[in-house]
What does this fold into?
Amino acid sequence: MIAVNRRQILISGAFLWLFAVAGTTLVAVTEFTTAAAIVENERQVLLRNLYALLPPARLDNDIAGDTLQLPAAALLGTELTTTAYRARRQGEPVAVIFNSIAPDGYNGKIHLLVGVNVDGSLAGVRVIKHAETPGLGDGIEIRKSPWIKGFDGRSLDNPDTAGWRVRRDGGEFDQLTGATITPRAIVAAVRKTLLYYRQNVDMIFK
It folds into this structure.
């Protein structure tokens, strides 16, 4: 009787072992076969975001590959190393896209892509991550409102320093209905990004 029970235990253990091996193998094969697809999907999302600010016709380099790792910088609102994406045409600088953060949004950090043309004007700004209030602060998203396009073509001199505020604070940028803190944070973050560019342009395109 004891021998029979031992045999049953061994058989059950063998089945469990085979099941574990089969399951582990299946997971490994699935991960291996989908890893390349995941990487490519992430690249396509990145390119869509970058090309939203810089149309492909403006550059001829691989903007997703022509990158620069930037150290943490107060003007960019970053506490860790970030990636800047450089656009060129026939080898000449066209623009750079920064990952910037507005740290003082209504509900926390607002992550931005800020495109700056080589002449220091803005190619555009897009919000890529935030936790602002739906129906109020989320008007910063391009799919919800054209508000973010108000930065296109602006620079440190257009408007002047006093103008780089929302209208409620005496500046030139609209606030969102029922939400002032959110646009105020973004306006400040975009201006600081332009300041960072002015101070580091030689390093960026070196």
